[in-house]
Each structure stands twice: as structure tokens, then as C-alpha cells.
Batch of 2 targets.
Target 1
Amino acid sequence: MYGRGLRFLSIASFVALTVAFALVFFYAPNDADQGFVYKIFFLHVPLALVALGGFVAGGIYGIKHLRSGRREDDMKSYVAIHLSIILGLATLATGMIWAKASWGHWWVWDEPTLVAFLIVFLLYSCYQPLRFAIEDPERQARYAAVFAVIAGAFVPICFMSVRFAQASVTHPRVLDSSGSLPGSMQLTLLVSLGAMVLLFMTLWKYELTSKHAKAQLRTLKRRLALGA
Amino acid sequence: MPALPLDDAGPYVAGAYLVFTAIILAYVAIMASKLARIERELDELEKLTEPEPEPEPERVEAQ
């Protein structure tokens, strides 16, 4: 059931990423201020947005699990958060490289957006240890769902408070300034974002398929052990 | 800071894209190894549940 459409999604995300990278390097012009280094923007920003979206999606599936009690929703929440942590790691790594190239430092502690993202990342890094510290599967799923809902609500609140609280920032404001981006850069950003969303969906489905197969295998083994 | 010249900026841009590719490839490789293990276990189960081949009936020699 989970594996349906996986091949199509894989091909679509591969093609979309290839097109996005081609646009980044052959279509979008160099930035007037930052020059060629600005190409990292088209990777770093979609990664960050998709990772944060994945955390929120994990919270939404957490709510669904708490309402219905279905194991499937818990698994979807878990996989969305797991993948978002991986994309969050990539966001931090690419952001640090960009910071070093354009500001001369790997990390700037007085930049609220960076610190907010790090806090969110560290918060979610506690998700897996918390989840697997509980042995009873029912309780594990319920507690993980509560964590996912609270942390998922914290993500937009954290970034909105950063936005409202500060007057001057070094970190670029993407969602505010995308209107002022030249058309070619805007198109490249949108295609990169779409490709990243597709990649997330593909990997999400891939991991869900693997988890589902593993669960089926466990059930089969149990039945065989009972029958023997 | 002024914009870095292309020669200096190149390694940073390449580094960022390589880090992204490496993380995604590592994730896919780990998932592929997990799927391979599941497939192996399924094969073992299949072998276990295969019905025993029926013994051939003994041929009675005509006297």
C-alpha cells in the first residue's frame, strides 16, 4: 500500500532536482552583493522551509494519532520528524558554509534566526531518545504524539516571535523579500522549493514503506511462532 | 563583507551542495540496507514455510 507511486515520485523528484540545480547554475544570475556565493541560497532556504514544514506535519499527524489512536498516523508523524531532523542537519551545515563565505564566521550567536533554528533542531533531537526510552508501544506512540504536537506548535511561534522582536537583522528575510527578487531568481527559488518538497515526499514514502514491510514481517514471524 | 571572487566562492558553493548530496545519499544507503535485511528475512521465512516435497511413491518391480 505504502509503496504505491514510489517509483513515479522518485523519478519526479530526481528530474525536479536536476532542473532546479540547472536553473541555479545556468539561469539565475549572481547576486549583486554576494556574487556566486548566493547560489547556496537556492539550496539552504528550500531545505530550511521543508524541514520546518515537516516538523509541523509531524505535529498534525500527532494530533490525528491522538484523535484516532491509529498506529499509521503515529508512524507518519515519526517519519516526518525523522526526515525533518535530517534536512535540518543539512540546513545547519549549508547555512554555516554560507555564513563563513559571506560573513567570515561559521556561526553568529547574536543572529536570532540562526539561534531559533538551532533551538528547534535541538528540541527535535530529543524526540527519538524520548520515544525509544518508552518500551510500551501504546504509551510510546501517545507520548511521542504529544511531543510532536507541542513542538510542532512551537516552530511557527518561535519564528514569528523572532520576526516581531527584532528591528535589525543580518540574516536575509526570504518570505518578506521574495517579492523584490528578480523574476529569474524567484522562479529558481520556487522550482528549488518544489523539488525539495518532492524529495521530502519521496523519502517519506520510502521510509514509510520500509517501516510497513518491517511491521508486516514481525507480524508474520509472530504468527509462525504461534502456529509452530 | 564584499562579494567573494568566483575562485574563492566556488569551494564554498561546491561544499554546500556536496554536503547536501552526501547527507541524502547516506540516508538512502541506510534505508536500502534496512530494506535488504527485510528482504533477506522474508526469503528465510519463505523457505521455512515452503511445504515439504512429497516423497515419490516406491516403484513396485514387476515380477
Target 2
Amino acid sequence: MNEGVIPLSVFDLALAASLVLVAGLTSLALRLGLGRRLLVASLRTIVQLVGVGYLLRWVFAIEHVFALFAVLLVMIAAASKAAVDRSSRRFEGALFGAFGTLVLVGLITTFSVTSVVIGVQPWHRAQYVIPLLGMVLGNGLTGISLALDSLLGSFDEGRERVEMELSLGASRWEAARDPLAEAVRRGMIPILNAMSVVGIVSLPGMMTGQILAGADPLDAVRYQIVVMFMLAAATSVGCVGVTLYAFRRLFDDEHRLRGERIVRTPS
Amino acid sequence: MTGLRLDEATLEIGGRRLFEGLCLRCDFGACVSPRAPSGAGKTTLLRALAGLTPLEKGTLTLDGEAPASMGMPRWRRRVVYLAQRPTFLLGSVRENLARPFGYATAEGAFPLGRAEALLERLGLHQGVLDQEARTLSVGEGQRVALVRALLLEPCALLLDEPTSALDPGAIEGLEGLLRERLEAGVALVWVTHDPDPIARLGAKVLELPS
């Protein structure tokens, strides 16, 4: 990768901004009324990315474990909030459950990949850890929110079905097993789809980035394979973790489904 | 002390107090029919007896034994609650009837012959066993759900309007079956708007405070 990337000047960025202008003119011509939102979205893109650029440069430069973990925790907190917000129902403690699951799954998979598979020295090099955790969280939060959505739907709309099994002598585990399995299946679908079409329909962002940066495509592919497997592991464990947590919260020790603990969120 | 007992019970639902100091006593071989206007909490009372809705206060016993001492799943297997709306899992009627015999609380294997006999008594033809359970009409579903409950040979049966979608012939079949269960010593708690069947079974009406 020593050829490096061709750096972009401010002028280049301004040139790219004219591309957004095309979108803006389209909106104007067709009276889509998207002009304002497009402007705000563009500004957010610039501000957020510049902000994160400076932050990453700072974290990379100081190479300090505490700084790294502070960034990781903020990323995980944001991901768990997003995971819970996307679900159409929630329950007390859902945010905590998503956070705990993502902390465990995110840190374990990320560090096992950076330390064991890639062999980063020292183990806490932010340049590797942060982007990999970012990918784990991006995929993990999608999986978790889908799994939660499915599970809470089965326990809320499908309450009669669960209570029918309970009233015939099923334990809470027996009554919830099918909904739990279905939730994990639902959460796994996006990553399974991504794994089946990768390279054919889509070139993953990370691989594209490495190739743009001058890496040998075969090297980039190796990284991508590692990443896909890491994401599959993280998503499956994440979905299992968060559904088991929800199961524990929504059934009491008397094997009762506490449907009143599920709140529908107006969307 | 034999039978199903609910003593000094306080029941709430969604923070609304339904009953306070409520007692329900149903001996083995006896039928009790709770009566109250709609929305007064008859279903909640049955759900509380089945341990599906928690009691704010009060005690629940079967033959002197509390749910906690036998474990709630075993309690529910002995005190079977039949919800007003029949609910089935994906699969045939046969699979649905056999399902509870796969639970850890099950005793013995699925008695197919008995299931066939019960279905016939309730006026359902044998072909119904292979029918997809979710395609049953409400009336058929109510009868299949009753068969599913009876196959567990419960000590107490909690019925929530089990005849609401049945024609007179089917009601007669159901009444006959329940009469036999009563004679066999089952405690029956039967919520219904129809005064005739419970009168014929000699049920004791329990007026609920509203």
C-alpha cells in the first residue's frame, strides 16, 4: 500500500459538491421539495466526516489504550441506541441489553481478529481496531434490531400463541423456543445475503477502499474474507445474546409472559 | 381442603383493581360458574387461576398444594386453562394435539386413540386430524382445543366461553363429555353467558363483585 492514495484538495471537494448540485437541481425541477433536506444532509456529511477525521487522526497519533477505549465505547453506545430505536417495540432494559451484547460481541470478535488473525502489533493499534469494530457494529446493530423486532412481535402480537403453550404445561423456555429461533434467523438474513452476493453484486466498501489505496486486489480479498467471517460470527452471537436477554426480561420466574413490559413505539 | 382454591385474592390489570378479597372454591367433581358483566374480569380470574396473570395478593392451591411447590408448568398441566379464542401452531390438528406431550411436564405418550374418540364425541370427523389446524373454523377450533385440554387429563379445567361458536348439537356433545369429567372428579370452572348448560350440570354460580 506504499503507493498511497492520491490526496484530494479542497478544490476537488468543491468539484464533488457540484455533483450534489445536480441532485438539488433535479429536486427543484421536479418540485420534490428535497432541496432543504439535501442541503442539511450534505452539510452533515461534511461536518461529521471532518470531525471523525480529526478524531481518528488524534487517536491514531497518541496511540493510547484509554483514548482508544473511550472511542470504542462511544461507538458501541451509539450503535446500541440505533439498534433499539429501529425496532418498532421496546422494553425496559432493551438499551442496556443491546449495549451489553455489543460490548461483549464487538470487543471479542474485533480483538480476536486484530490480535490473533491479523496479528497487529501492538494489540491496541487504533488504525486496525476502530475500522474493524465499526464494521462489526454496523452489521451487528442491523442484526440485533431485526432479531429484537421479530422477537417482540412474536411476544406481543403472538402472545396468545405463547400463552396457549404455557397453559398446556410448557415451560417458558419451551413456549419461547420457536420465537427465539425465528428471531435469530431473521437477524442473520442480511449478513447471509451479503455473504452470498459479495464480489458478484457488490464490492464491499473496505475492499474498495483498499484497492483505491493501491493494495493488491488479492490482499484486499483476504482481508474481506476475514471480515465477512468476523461479521457472521459477531452477528449470530449478537442476535443470540440479545434475544436471550429479552427472553429473561420478558418472562418471570413463574413462567409468565409479561406482555405489559413490551411498549410499542410510535413510528 | 380438596379441590381448587383461591383465597383472599386481589387482582389488578394494568393498574386497575378488579377484585379484592375474592374467594373461589371449586371442589373436585364440582362445577363453579363465575358470573359478572362483560369486562368485569372473568377472563382475568381464569388466567389468575392458571397462573398466567400474577395475583397482587392471595393464595392459590390445588388439593392444598401451591403452584410454587410443584412448579408453575406442572400446575398449569393440572389446572388447564382453555382460552376463549382457540389458538393453534402451524401444522396439522394431529401435531397440535400431540405438542403438549413433547413438553418436559408430559406424562406418557400422545394417546391417538383417545384423541380420535374425543373428536368423534364432539362431532368432528376423523379426517380433521390431518387438516391444517389454522384452517379450522372457530367452532371446530373450540372443540379441537377442548380435546387438546382433555387429553392432558387435568385435575381442574378452566373454560372461557367454550360454546360461544357451537351449535346446539355440539354443545350437547361437549356437555356430555364435561359431565363425565365431573363424575371422574375434575374440578370445573366454567365462564359462560349461556345459563342452560351450567344449570344442567348443577353448577354453583359465583357472582363476582363489579
